């Protein structure tokens, strides 16, 4: 006689029941969290924003946009001029860790070149 493999949920309930020493349900229960989402959430997206300042040369901002955001000269110039005129502009939208890396790369590169260029994150 063979038995079917118990499902993950069945095992979780068994373990949870074994750990529950009759203190009632709810708080203090010990068990293994095995719940998985049927529909995994998409990683949330973040805008990388570039801020205007009075000192960073336009050519440097264009170089940054080409180097770290893979824009061509025309697109990089358009975004740079938008930031120059409006004060802020979007360089791209990425998952959190990638957006954070881009911000750090831009800030490090600006600092190395002694420009006050600022870059930040905002939830998309
Ligand atoms: N305002 C700068 C200048 O006139 C150019 C500039 C554009 C600086 C965009 C920062 O994010 C920026 N030299």
Show the helix and strand layout.
Elements: H1 8-19, E1 45-51, H2 58-69, H3 73-86, E2 88-95, H4 96-112, E3 118-123
Antiparallel strand pairs: 1-2, 1-3
Helix pairs in contact: 2-3
The structure holds L-tyrosinamide.
Tally of DSSP β-strands: 3
Helix content: 40-55%
- How far is the N terminus from the C terminus? 57 Å
Tell me what portion of residues adopts beta-strand conformation: 15-25%
**Class computed from helices, strands and strand pairing:** alpha+beta
Treating each run of at least 4 consecutive H or I residues as one helix, how many helices?
4
Bound molecules: L-tyrosinamide
Computed over alpha carbons, the radius of gyration is 25 Å
Mean pLDDT: 80
Largest beta sheet, briefly?
Answer: 3 strands, antiparallel
Shape: elongated
Q: How do the helices and strands follow one another from N- to C-terminus?
A: HEHHEHE
Low-confidence stretches: 1-28
């Amino acid at each position: 006689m063979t038995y079917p493999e118990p499902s993950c949920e069945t095992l979780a309930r068994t373990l949870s029941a074994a750990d529950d020493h009759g203190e009632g349900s709810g708080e203090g229960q010990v068990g293994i969290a095995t719940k998985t989402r049927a529909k995994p959430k998409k990683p949330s997206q973040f805008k990388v924003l570039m801020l205007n300042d009075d000192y960073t040369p336009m050519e440097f901002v264009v170089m940054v946009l080409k180097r770290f955001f893979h824009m061509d000269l025309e697109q990089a110039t358009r975004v740079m001029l938008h930031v120059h005129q409006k004060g802020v502009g979007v360089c791209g939208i990425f998952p959190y860790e990638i957006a954070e890396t881009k911000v750090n790369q831009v800030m490090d590169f600006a600092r190395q070149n002694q420009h006050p260029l600022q870059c930040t994150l905002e939830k998309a």
